[in-house]
Design brief:
single chain
Length: 438
């Protein structure tokens, strides 16, 4: 085993990577002396060339922060981030780990091998002995878990442990120049937040047809941190979208039972009983009609649904809560999913390339992926055929949109308190940022 004594290194200046930089120290001392004079400014007409200067090099006893281990030995902590092109060996070297036994353990242990899944930007923390032996190493190897390698007697042990991230509130605003995702990207908003916004407002705004240049939005959302490092995006807490000069506002509210949803400030559930479209960012290629010329059969017949054009493999969403009543093939419809909803409502999704993970009798939530766009059955190209029935009778899905259940009287006081706080945050954000969009 190789060893290097950190006590000897402590006699030399260290940079953030733990390397000796004595010449740099001399330069820094010189710059510091010059900076003192510059900090107070120089009066006009002052001749500086005659001021005598000299370089001072002084030995500084720089001691590393140390804590006592159970063996009463000094240990040292190092923190670094994974860089592009890093290997486990280069990362361990930069953390001043000089321990062949630790390297061999990480390479061979089934759990320890998780360290080889290096992701640039992720933080790695290490605690080592004065001789460079590894005492512990912590790496955030996923959004939910951290990999821990620890000294265990004469050997090591590796384990994955769940993280307990801390939620911080983020305030952002944006303006539409070309698309929702272009605007959120320009505002530094994560894509997952953009997807949440699209889903939250999907029952009020068609982001394919209704969006206009100059539309504005503000959003307050959670970002989850672990040891000061962002690990994942949380939920949107409140948001406003101004589409064609009409404002839509929402506040997130969670009942004591843990059921959360988005409501307007007056307590109306923004989530309608049925989504306007089972596919995000799609377009209607053929509408509901009592007589339409069929492109495959070459004859006139009723079109009892709406066709949404979309690329093959696009996810298809359940337009409302319900229970799966059929999964399989139906003649010219090809691969089909049927869902029975509350009261007398049912929906049908046809021409699927493949199904989602579900089975007949399973409960489905609104917005859950039930399948993927394809061209099975009688179809000239990839699209979704969507039908909406009321008591077994076909209706135009674009004109029938039953509302969801309103806020209950028992929950209203708690909601009003939560909504008031969130709307105040949204108003502050809107007032701060709206002027710069105009």
């Amino acid at each position: 085993m190789r060893h290097k004594n950190l006590n000897s290194l402590a006699q030399k200046p260290f940079n953030h990577e733990g390397k000796s930089r004595l010449p740099v120290l001399a330069a820094l001392v010189f710059v510091s002396l010059f900076g003192v004079a510059a900090a107070f400014g120089i009066a006009p007409d002052t001749v500086t060339r005659t001021i005598p200067t000299r370089t001072v090099v002084e030995t500084i006893d720089l001691k590393l922060a140390a804590v006592n281990t159970e063996d009463d030995q000094n240990s040292y902590g190092f923190v670094d981030k994974v860089r592009e092109g890093d290997t486990v060996a280069t990362l361990l070297a930069r953390l001043n780990i000089d321990d062949e036994d630790a390297e061999n353990f990480i390479r061979k242990d089934a759990v320890g091998q998780g360290l080889y899944q290096l992701r640039p930007g992720r933080t790695v923390r290490a605690q080592i002995s004065a001789d460079g032996e590894l005492l512990s190493l912590v790496y955030l190897n996923s959004q939910d878990n951290m990999l821990v390698v620890e000294k265990n007697g004469d050997g090591f042990k590796a384990s994955e442990r769940p993280i307990a991230p801390i939620a911080r509130t983020v305030f952002k605003s944006g303006v539409i120049r070309s698309s929702l995702f272009g605007a959120t990207d320009a505002a530094g908003i994560p894509e997952t937040v953009a997807m949440q916004l699209a889903k939250i407002f999907s029952t009020s705004i068609d982001f394919h047809q209704d969006l206009r240049r100059g539309d504005q939005f503000s959003v307050v959302y959670e970002m989850l941190y672990q040891n000061g490092e962002p690990v994942r995006v949380g939920k949107v807490l409140t948001a406003e979208f101004i589409n064609q000069n009409k404002s839509y506002r929402v506040a997130y509210f969670e009942s004591p039972e843990g059921d959360g949803d988005y409501y307007t400030p007056d307590g109306r559930n923004l989530r309608k009983a049925f989504l306007r479209s089972p596919i995000e960012f799609s377009r209607v290629s053929s509408g509901f009609s009592s007589s339409r010329f069929h492109p495959v059969l070459n004859k006139w017949r009723a079109h009892k649904g709406v066709d949404f054009a979309a690329p093959s493999g696009t996810g298809i969403l359940a337009t409302a809560d319900g229970k799966v009543s059929f999964v399989g093939t139906k003649g010219g419809y090809g691969n089909v999913v049927e869902i029975k909803h509350h009261e007398n409502y049912s929906t049908l999704y046809a021409h699927l390339s493949r199904f989602g993970k579900m089975r007949v009798g399973e409960k489905i939530r609104q917005g859950e992926v039930i399948g993927y766009v394809g061209r099975t059955g009688l179809a000239t190209g990839p699209h979704l055929h969507y039908e909406f029935k009321v008591a077994g009778v076909h209706n135009d899905p674009l004109t029938v949109a039953p509302l969801s259940q309103p806020m209950t009287a028992a929950l209203r006081p708690a909601f009003d308190k939560t909504s008031k706080t969130l709307m105040a945050q949204l108003e502050l954000l809107r007032g701060t940022n709206l002027a710069r969009f105009e």
